[in-house]
Write a structure and sequence with these properties.
Two copies of one chain form a homodimer. By secondary structure, chain A is an alpha/beta fold. In chain A, the strands form three sheets. In chain A, strands 3-2-1-4-8 form a five-stranded mixed sheet, sandwiched between helices. Chain A has a five-stranded mixed sheet with strand order 11-10-9-12-13. Chain A is 38% helix and 20% strand.
Chain lengths: 320, 320
């Protein structure tokens, strides 16, 4: 009999959330534990396994589960290991997929969060039926999941799809990765806040943003000001969208996708971000690509997206 | 019985060359016609078919031929059409694959020259056994053929892999495509000559290149001067390699290939181009990619490469 459920586990620096998902993308039941509480990886795995076992038992035991998909920072699909993740409590290389399989006796596949988002869009979201698309996650950082010929692109070593670390301004802002001018330093939520601070310090015009404490300004504040028609806030979105659009034009020259899908925080700024992205993407593309590449918003419900994305990978794991 | 031969046809603006190739990449016999002579596509197809039929008959007729692969500017794999090629005599959309199949009764597949080069490297050259690599062709223009998971990347519309038209210097040199700052405008043979002219006009230091007519300087002249230790010529290579290396770092962030393979004219400048490319590529890559991505020279013999590349596609065509 075909197994009716997959498990999705999303490992974040603060929380680990997980759920049982059916084929149509409904989360049947779910749970969470605090990632940061477990300084020892063995304690973490024991507690996570026990909690996941509970929700498995609620749907009839492991014989109902096709597979477990895990999204985690620096998750390597090929090795099943989390490798040197800066924001997790455990150092070095963690063979997470193997450790979970040993405890739960269900096959486990692991990838990073942006790849999980891409598989989620393909399975349940905006990319259903598409074989060539790119998901760009705009959050604290900028991530990407690339699908070509219906397959997620892992590259020869499992680390493909780091489009947040392509260079958009040579010699530009210093990035956490050690490089300069990475797309992420301008177009992540943090990057937008950085732009806001720069604009407020180097320009003279009035802005609603001047009423806020310069040090604690967030991208959400820029959005709120833009909604009220604040000119400086709109210019910040225009600048952010320009850089994203220019980058997208280069990504299109690589894989000529049917669509680019925006996922996460900043993508919810709607027309403030979509309009300038579309304009500058079209202006910077070769004529053969113009007016052909869709620019879409994620169709995964925000609160469920991480678990859904990870669970989508669970459908694809092989039985061992 | 397995069919022992494939045909490769390379359509250039001046000449069309073709040959019968065996599985090990030996060209058994070959021929050519003058592309530019035929203003009417029907005349061209008639003459090309007659000439190709001759070499087919020499190896035992069409029952010995697995397929015909064609490399042509703006060749679209999905449609089998040459679409709006600026350097060929025929306007609009030419259903070349269908026209040739009708005449020769052998299945025909078509793609652009850079894609043909990539399939050629995978079948007979430097990429044998690789599943993830990128071929960059450095000629009059800059082209690319991208292989991921053992498959050539065509994109949703057949036009993927135009890496020569990614932006390396925002607002930079005007490109034939209508954009500004494309990689091609700096790192093609023409781009190198353009750099040489700029350097000679804006700088004062002595150089062997000053003995030449500024208007007719070619990339080959820069190479000859570099071989003699000319400092300005070496700086031109350093600058060209820097831009290529920076671009390659971004390409790696996309597909994390096992290797990037340089093909065509400029790639034969050896260490003058490879050393700066390698240095700047490594400096601009994320730490996870460093010292892992091979930078290789094409292993297809120059005079045979175009026919071999196209023929490699001939092995992959489906019987209808």
């Amino acid at each position: 009999m075909e197994k009716p459920y997959a498990i999705g586990i999303d490992i974040g620096g603060t929380n680990t959330i997980f759920g049982v998902v059916d084929k149509r993308g409904h989360i049947i039941n779910q749970g969470s534990i605090k990632t940061g509480t477990y300084k020892e990886i063995n304690d973490y795995i024991s507690n996570l396994s026990a909690s996941v076992q509970e929700i498995i038992d609620q749907v009839g035991g492991s014989s109902s589960i096709k597979g477990i998909g895990v999204g985690a920072p620096n998750g390597n699909f090929f090795t099943g290991c989390i490798e040197f993740a800066p924001n997790l409590p455990w150092k070095g290389v963690i063979p997470l997929a193997q450790m979970l399989t040993d405890k739960l006796n269900v096959p486990v596949a692991l990838t990073n969060d942006a790849n999980a988002a891409a598989i989620g869009e393909m399975t349940y979201g905006a990319a259903r039926g598409m074989k060539d698309f790119i998901v760009i996650t705009l959050g604290t950082g900028v991530g990407s999941g690339i699908v070509i010929n219906g397959q997620l692109v892992y590259g020869h070593d499992g680390f493909a799809g780091e489009l947040g670390h392509t260079t958009i301004i040579p010699g530009g802002r210093v990035c956490g990765c050690g490089k300069k001018g990475c797309l992420e330093t301008y177009t992540s939520a943090t990057g937008v806040a950085r732009t806001a601070k720069e604009y407020l310090q180097t320009r003279k015009e009035p802005s609603l943003l001047r009423e806020l404490d310069l040090e604690t300004i967030e991208s959400k504040d820029v959005y709120d000001a833009a909604v009220k028609g604040d000119k400086l806030a709109l210019e910040i979105f225009e600048y952010t969208g320009k850089l994203l659009g220019e980058s997208f034009a280069d990504f299109v020259a690589f894989s000529s996708p049917e669509a680019i899908i925006l996922f996460g925080g900043l993508s919810k700024s709607g027309k403030f971000i979509f309009d300038p992205v579309r304009k500058h993407m079209e202006e910077n593309m070769l004529p053969i690509y113009r007016n052909k590449i869709k620019l879409l918003m994620s169709e995964l419900k925000e609160s469920d997206a991480a678990v859904l994305g990870a669970s989508a990978l669970g459908w694809e794991v092989k039985d061992y």
